[in-house]
Design brief:
Layout lengths: L1 H14 L2 H20 L4 H22 L4 H36 L1 H13 L1 H4 L6 H31 L1 H20 L1 H9 L7 H38 L5 H11 L5 H18 L3 H25 L8 H21 L1 H14 L14
Helix pairs in contact: 3-4, 3-8, 3-10, 4-8, 4-11, 5-7, 5-12, 10-11, 10-13, 10-15, 11-12, 12-13, 14-15
Length: 360
């Protein structure tokens, strides 16, 4: 009976407010829709994400007395132009370097073999020939499997031309209407909500601000880190500079973990190309400087208004939402974690208000 009383008291404390019940139902319904229909709704969700990203530009143009429809059209044209330019310039270069990497895998593997074979002679107290031989055998199989799977996955994605064309058409269309009719969409959505919605309004305002700030900051961070990494590697003469720059730029989507994981291909390419030399040391120092500036200068500047989240909470959010929705789950992990924190912070309880004692 005591256990039942505890559970009953907990439910009465946190779920006696009808607004809280509505929020739970709404979040559960949204979660189920994303789980079962997230792939189908990907163009719409992508358009919504870019609408959060670009709505500030539209608002600024409207403040300058540009008609809203004209402002939306200008932003849409600029967005499509930038996206097209990036696709035309970056994708062919990355694709060419990806093909070169696959073709160079045998020589790449030979270089790794030579480096590994030298370890027992240089450091006999740490590495035996048997251990290194086992490593080389495992490495052979892993590299072969990696090359085959990489080509198959890329070809499989590119072969879905119909799906890709539908996505490329519907996402900009969704973006246009989200920017053009944002006020009407919000008003229509608000009409089905309860009249008393302090909790919903508080959570909605915080999430709208956080998602917009996060998306703008993250896109700028990816571009800056990716471009700076590419230019640095290109100046240093590193092979596959564009491919590595893209990997390092995308790695910022996963805080902490991404920087550690992407270090492996950067170090491997540099080691095979330069060996244990000063050039390899310069490459790694330059790479670590980029990572350091990103974590200590760029991120605090871009996300100064973001809600503070503990690193463990960020990593857990990346793992959970990434497992649910793949790339997009990773991309939106921090805003979704912020949503959870905002809901917990604003959640109504039935605790009696504290009374301040009057001074004697």
């Amino acid at each position: 009976m005591r256990f039942v009383e505890i559970i009953s008291g907990w439910i009465n404390r946190y779920f006696s407010n009808e607004e809280a019940i509505f929020l739970v139902v709404f979040l559960a319904a949204a979660l189920l829709i994303l789980i079962f229909f997230g792939g189908v709704l990907a163009p719409v969700l992508t358009g919504l994400g870019f609408a959060f990203l670009l709505r500030g530009v539209v608002s600024r143009l409207v403040a300058w007395r540009v008609p809203r429809l004209v402002a939306v059209g200008v932003v849409e044209v600029i967005f499509l132009g930038v996206l097209t330019a990036l696709v035309i310039v970056i994708l062919p270069l990355v694709w060419q370097q990806l093909r070169d990497l696959v073709n160079a895998l045998p020589g790449f593997l030979d270089g790794l073999r030579e480096l590994a074979a030298a370890l027992p002679q240089r450091y006999p107290e740490f590495f035996s020939e048997t251990t290194v031989s086992n490593w080389i055998g495992t490495l052979n199989q892993q590299v072969v499997d990696f090359g085959a799977n990489l080509v198959q996955d890329v070809v499989a994605q590119l072969s879905n031309v119909v799906g890709l064309m539908i996505f490329l058409i519907l996402a900009p269309v969704a973006l246009f209407f989200f920017l053009k009719d944002s006020e009407k969409i919000v008003a229509a959505f608000a009409s089905v909500l309860p009249r008393k919605r302090r909790l919903l309004n508080e959570v909605g305002r915080e999430m709208s601000l956080q998602i917009g700030n996060y998306l703008r900051g993250k896109v700028i961070e990816i571009l800056i880190v990716g471009v700076v990494t590419y230019l640095t590697f290109w100046i240093l003469g590193v092979n596959y500079a564009a491919l590595l720059g893209l990997l390092v730029g995308v790695s910022v989507l996963i805080p902490f973990v991404g920087a550690i994981v992407v270090t492996i291909p950067v170090a491997t390419v540099g080691l095979v190309q330069f060996g244990w030399s000063v050039d390899f040391l310069v490459l790694m120092v330059a790479y670590l400087v980029i990572q350091g500036l990103d974590g200590n200068v760029l991120v605090p500047w871009l996300f100064s208004e973001a809600v503070d989240l503990h690193p463990i909470a960020i990593i857990a959010a990346v793992l959970v939402f990434g497992a649910l929705w793949g790339f997009w789950g990773v991309f939106f992990a921090i805003p979704l974690a912020t949503l959870v924190k905002a809901v917990l912070h604003a959640w109504p309880t039935q605790d009696p208000p504290e009374t301040k004692e009057s001074p004697p």
